[in-house]
Write a structure and sequence with these properties.
It contains eight helices and nine strands. The protein is α/β, with parallel strands linked by helices. It has a single domain, classed as 3-Layer(aba) Sandwich (Rossmann fold). It has a five-stranded mixed β-sheet with strand order 1-4-7-9-8, with helices on both faces. Strands 2-3 form a two-stranded antiparallel ribbon. It has a two-stranded antiparallel sheet with strand order 5-6.
Length: about 270
Protein backbone atom coordinates (compact mmCIF):
# COMPACT_ATOMS: atom_id res chain seq x y z
CA UNK A 1 0.00 0.00 0.00
CA UNK A 2 1.74 3.20 -1.16
CA UNK A 3 0.37 5.38 1.63
CA UNK A 4 2.02 3.50 4.50
CA UNK A 5 5.41 5.13 3.98
CA UNK A 6 3.82 8.58 3.89
CA UNK A 7 2.00 7.88 7.16
CA UNK A 8 5.26 6.74 8.76
CA UNK A 9 7.07 9.90 7.66
CA UNK A 10 4.27 12.15 8.92
CA UNK A 11 4.54 10.47 12.33
CA UNK A 12 8.33 10.84 12.28
CA UNK A 13 7.90 14.56 11.61
CA UNK A 14 5.36 14.94 14.46
CA UNK A 15 5.14 12.19 17.07
CA UNK A 16 1.91 13.64 18.49
CA UNK A 17 -0.04 13.69 15.23
CA UNK A 18 -3.11 11.50 14.85
CA UNK A 19 -4.15 10.01 11.51
CA UNK A 20 -7.66 8.90 10.54
CA UNK A 21 -7.73 6.90 7.30
CA UNK A 22 -10.95 6.47 5.34
CA UNK A 23 -11.69 3.53 3.03
CA UNK A 24 -14.20 4.05 0.23
CA UNK A 25 -15.72 0.59 -0.43
CA UNK A 26 -17.21 1.53 -3.79
CA UNK A 27 -13.76 1.96 -5.38
CA UNK A 28 -11.60 -0.28 -3.18
CA UNK A 29 -11.18 -3.02 -5.82
CA UNK A 30 -12.24 -5.79 -3.45
CA UNK A 31 -12.50 -9.42 -4.57
CA UNK A 32 -15.80 -9.83 -2.73
CA UNK A 33 -19.00 -8.44 -4.22
CA UNK A 34 -18.37 -4.71 -4.39
CA UNK A 35 -20.50 -1.86 -3.12
CA UNK A 36 -21.92 -0.45 -6.34
CA UNK A 37 -23.15 2.90 -5.09
CA UNK A 38 -21.49 6.11 -3.94
CA UNK A 39 -22.76 7.67 -0.72
CA UNK A 40 -24.44 11.06 -1.33
CA UNK A 41 -22.14 13.97 -0.54
CA UNK A 42 -24.03 15.29 2.50
CA UNK A 43 -24.44 11.82 3.98
CA UNK A 44 -20.76 11.07 3.40
CA UNK A 45 -19.71 14.27 5.17
CA UNK A 46 -22.03 13.51 8.07
CA UNK A 47 -20.63 9.96 8.29
CA UNK A 48 -17.08 11.29 8.47
CA UNK A 49 -18.10 13.57 11.32
CA UNK A 50 -19.71 10.59 13.11
CA UNK A 51 -16.46 8.63 12.82
CA UNK A 52 -14.54 11.51 14.37
CA UNK A 53 -17.15 11.93 17.09
CA UNK A 54 -16.91 8.25 17.93
CA UNK A 55 -13.21 8.77 18.62
CA UNK A 56 -13.88 12.04 20.50
CA UNK A 57 -12.25 14.07 17.73
CA UNK A 58 -15.25 15.93 16.34
CA UNK A 59 -14.32 19.23 18.03
CA UNK A 60 -10.72 19.22 16.75
CA UNK A 61 -9.75 20.97 13.50
CA UNK A 62 -8.23 18.57 10.95
CA UNK A 63 -5.82 18.70 8.06
CA UNK A 64 -7.65 17.05 5.19
CA UNK A 65 -5.21 15.11 2.99
CA UNK A 66 -6.41 13.43 -0.19
CA UNK A 67 -4.99 11.74 -3.27
CA UNK A 68 -6.53 11.14 -6.71
CA UNK A 69 -10.22 10.18 -6.34
CA UNK A 70 -9.99 11.13 -2.68
CA UNK A 71 -9.58 14.75 -3.76
CA UNK A 72 -13.04 14.53 -5.36
CA UNK A 73 -14.46 13.51 -1.97
CA UNK A 74 -12.34 16.15 -0.22
CA UNK A 75 -14.00 18.77 -2.40
CA UNK A 76 -17.38 17.55 -1.18
CA UNK A 77 -16.23 17.61 2.46
CA UNK A 78 -14.91 21.14 2.05
CA UNK A 79 -18.16 22.33 0.51
CA UNK A 80 -20.17 20.68 3.30
CA UNK A 81 -17.95 22.20 5.97
CA UNK A 82 -18.35 25.67 4.52
CA UNK A 83 -22.13 25.49 4.32
CA UNK A 84 -22.95 23.35 7.36
CA UNK A 85 -24.84 26.21 9.01
CA UNK A 86 -27.40 26.31 6.21
CA UNK A 87 -27.74 22.60 5.38
CA UNK A 88 -30.82 21.19 7.03
CA UNK A 89 -32.53 17.86 6.83
CA UNK A 90 -35.82 17.19 8.66
CA UNK A 91 -35.26 20.29 10.73
CA UNK A 92 -31.89 19.18 12.11
CA UNK A 93 -28.53 20.63 11.05
CA UNK A 94 -25.92 18.33 9.55
CA UNK A 95 -22.66 17.95 11.42
CA UNK A 96 -19.48 18.07 9.34
CA UNK A 97 -15.75 17.78 10.08
CA UNK A 98 -13.78 20.90 10.96
CA UNK A 99 -11.22 21.45 8.21
CA UNK A 100 -8.27 23.66 9.15
CA UNK A 101 -6.16 23.09 6.03
CA UNK A 102 -6.14 21.08 2.83
CA UNK A 103 -3.55 18.95 0.99
CA UNK A 104 -4.52 17.74 -2.49
CA UNK A 105 -2.18 15.29 -4.25
CA UNK A 106 -2.84 14.51 -7.92
CA UNK A 107 -6.11 16.49 -7.71
CA UNK A 108 -8.99 15.70 -10.03
CA UNK A 109 -11.65 18.30 -8.98
CA UNK A 110 -10.03 21.22 -10.82
CA UNK A 111 -11.29 21.71 -14.40
CA UNK A 112 -13.22 18.46 -14.06
CA UNK A 113 -15.82 19.84 -16.46
CA UNK A 114 -13.29 19.57 -19.30
CA UNK A 115 -12.97 16.21 -21.11
CA UNK A 116 -9.27 15.54 -20.44
CA UNK A 117 -9.56 13.66 -17.15
CA UNK A 118 -12.65 11.55 -17.81
CA UNK A 119 -11.36 10.57 -21.25
CA UNK A 120 -7.93 9.62 -19.89
CA UNK A 121 -9.31 7.41 -17.13
CA UNK A 122 -12.55 6.00 -18.49
CA UNK A 123 -12.29 5.86 -22.28
CA UNK A 124 -8.69 6.04 -23.50
CA UNK A 125 -7.16 2.79 -24.75
CA UNK A 126 -3.53 2.42 -23.62
CA UNK A 127 -0.89 3.36 -26.14
CA UNK A 128 1.75 0.97 -27.40
CA UNK A 129 4.71 0.84 -25.05
CA UNK A 130 2.94 2.90 -22.36
CA UNK A 131 3.29 0.49 -19.44
CA UNK A 132 1.82 2.89 -16.88
CA UNK A 133 -1.28 3.38 -19.05
CA UNK A 134 -1.78 -0.38 -19.33
CA UNK A 135 -1.47 -0.82 -15.56
CA UNK A 136 -3.96 1.97 -14.90
CA UNK A 137 -6.35 0.69 -17.57
CA UNK A 138 -6.30 -2.98 -16.49
CA UNK A 139 -6.21 -2.66 -12.71
CA UNK A 140 -8.24 0.54 -12.22
CA UNK A 141 -10.26 1.72 -15.20
CA UNK A 142 -11.57 -1.75 -16.05
CA UNK A 143 -12.07 -2.99 -12.50
CA UNK A 144 -15.68 -4.18 -12.15
CA UNK A 145 -16.59 -1.94 -9.23
CA UNK A 146 -14.54 1.10 -10.24
CA UNK A 147 -15.82 1.15 -13.83
CA UNK A 148 -19.41 0.69 -12.70
CA UNK A 149 -19.30 3.36 -10.02
CA UNK A 150 -17.41 6.00 -12.02
CA UNK A 151 -19.46 5.37 -15.15
CA UNK A 152 -22.96 5.16 -13.71
CA UNK A 153 -23.29 5.85 -10.00
CA UNK A 154 -22.61 9.56 -9.51
CA UNK A 155 -22.28 12.93 -11.23
CA UNK A 156 -18.78 14.28 -11.79
CA UNK A 157 -19.87 17.90 -11.37
CA UNK A 158 -20.70 17.22 -7.71
CA UNK A 159 -17.00 17.25 -6.89
CA UNK A 160 -15.85 20.27 -8.87
CA UNK A 161 -13.50 22.60 -6.98
CA UNK A 162 -12.94 26.20 -8.04
CA UNK A 163 -9.88 28.31 -7.37
CA UNK A 164 -12.07 30.76 -5.48
CA UNK A 165 -12.97 27.97 -3.04
CA UNK A 166 -9.42 27.72 -1.71
CA UNK A 167 -7.86 31.17 -2.18
CA UNK A 168 -8.65 33.84 0.38
CA UNK A 169 -11.11 33.80 3.24
CA UNK A 170 -13.44 30.92 3.89
CA UNK A 171 -16.50 30.80 6.09
CA UNK A 172 -16.08 28.45 9.05
CA UNK A 173 -19.48 27.77 10.60
CA UNK A 174 -17.86 25.88 13.47
CA UNK A 175 -16.24 29.10 14.66
CA UNK A 176 -19.33 31.22 14.69
CA UNK A 177 -19.18 32.11 11.02
CA UNK A 178 -15.88 34.02 11.32
CA UNK A 179 -13.66 34.34 8.26
CA UNK A 180 -10.22 32.76 8.15
CA UNK A 181 -7.70 31.60 5.62
CA UNK A 182 -7.69 27.98 4.52
CA UNK A 183 -4.04 26.96 3.92
CA UNK A 184 -4.02 24.68 0.89
CA UNK A 185 -1.18 22.69 -0.66
CA UNK A 186 -1.68 21.27 -4.16
CA UNK A 187 0.86 18.70 -5.39
CA UNK A 188 1.04 17.94 -9.11
CA UNK A 189 2.94 15.41 -11.20
CA UNK A 190 4.05 17.01 -14.45
CA UNK A 191 3.84 13.70 -16.32
CA UNK A 192 0.44 12.74 -14.89
CA UNK A 193 -1.40 10.49 -17.34
CA UNK A 194 -4.83 11.37 -15.90
CA UNK A 195 -4.78 14.92 -14.55
CA UNK A 196 -4.09 17.66 -17.17
CA UNK A 197 -1.30 19.09 -15.05
CA UNK A 198 -0.40 21.96 -17.37
CA UNK A 199 -3.96 23.28 -17.46
CA UNK A 200 -4.43 22.83 -13.70
CA UNK A 201 -1.14 24.63 -12.95
CA UNK A 202 -2.07 27.58 -15.18
CA UNK A 203 -5.57 27.72 -13.69
CA UNK A 204 -4.37 27.73 -10.08
CA UNK A 205 -1.43 30.08 -10.63
CA UNK A 206 -3.19 32.54 -12.94
CA UNK A 207 -1.11 31.56 -15.94
CA UNK A 208 2.35 31.26 -14.36
CA UNK A 209 4.89 29.20 -16.32
CA UNK A 210 5.16 25.85 -14.53
CA UNK A 211 8.81 25.21 -15.41
CA UNK A 212 10.35 27.68 -12.98
CA UNK A 213 10.08 28.07 -9.23
CA UNK A 214 8.53 31.34 -8.12
CA UNK A 215 9.47 30.85 -4.47
CA UNK A 216 13.07 31.75 -3.76
CA UNK A 217 15.31 29.61 -1.52
CA UNK A 218 12.83 26.75 -1.24
CA UNK A 219 13.72 23.34 -2.61
CA UNK A 220 10.28 21.75 -2.30
CA UNK A 221 11.70 18.25 -2.32
CA UNK A 222 13.22 18.73 -5.76
CA UNK A 223 10.14 20.41 -7.23
CA UNK A 224 10.40 21.93 -10.69
CA UNK A 225 7.78 24.57 -10.02
CA UNK A 226 6.57 26.22 -6.80
CA UNK A 227 3.97 28.97 -6.69
CA UNK A 228 2.32 30.66 -3.70
CA UNK A 229 -0.57 33.13 -3.63
CA UNK A 230 0.01 36.61 -2.23
CA UNK A 231 -1.99 35.92 0.92
CA UNK A 232 -0.22 32.60 1.49
CA UNK A 233 -3.43 30.58 1.40
CA UNK A 234 -2.49 28.50 -1.66
CA UNK A 235 0.79 26.78 -2.54
CA UNK A 236 1.11 24.76 -5.74
CA UNK A 237 4.05 22.40 -6.31
CA UNK A 238 4.84 20.71 -9.61
CA UNK A 239 7.15 17.69 -10.00
CA UNK A 240 7.62 17.48 -13.76
CA UNK A 241 8.97 13.90 -14.12
CA UNK A 242 6.33 12.26 -11.92
CA UNK A 243 3.27 10.37 -13.14
CA UNK A 244 -0.01 9.88 -11.30
CA UNK A 245 0.61 8.72 -7.68
CA UNK A 246 4.39 8.58 -8.17
CA UNK A 247 4.77 11.17 -5.42
CA UNK A 248 4.64 8.20 -3.06
CA UNK A 249 7.68 6.51 -4.63
CA UNK A 250 9.81 9.66 -4.85
CA UNK A 251 11.56 9.87 -1.50
CA UNK A 252 12.49 13.58 -1.58
CA UNK A 253 9.06 14.69 -2.77
CA UNK A 254 7.22 12.41 -0.35
CA UNK A 255 9.27 13.55 2.64
CA UNK A 256 8.67 17.20 1.73
CA UNK A 257 4.91 16.63 1.53
CA UNK A 258 4.97 14.73 4.86
CA UNK A 259 6.81 17.63 6.50
CA UNK A 260 4.27 20.10 5.08
CA UNK A 261 1.38 18.01 6.42
CA UNK A 262 2.99 17.87 9.87
CA UNK A 263 3.52 21.64 9.79
CA UNK A 264 -0.11 22.32 8.84
CA UNK A 265 -1.25 19.96 11.61
CA UNK A 266 0.85 21.81 14.19
CA UNK A 267 -0.65 25.13 13.05
CA UNK A 268 -4.28 23.87 13.05
Amino acid sequence: MPYITLFREIIQADRDVGITVLEIPAISARLIYPVRQMTPARVFANNVHSILQNHHLGHIPHVLVANSFGTFLASQLLSASRHSASNLENGHPHQYPRISSLVLIDPIPFLIFEPDLTHAFLYRFPGQGRTSQWIMWYFSSRDLAVAGVLGREFFWYEGVLWREDIVGAMRDANRGGSSRLLPTLVVLGGNDQIVPTGKVWRYLTNGTDGTHSTTAAEDGGGADGIWESNDGSLKVINYLPLDHAQIFVSRKARQFVAAEIARLSAEA
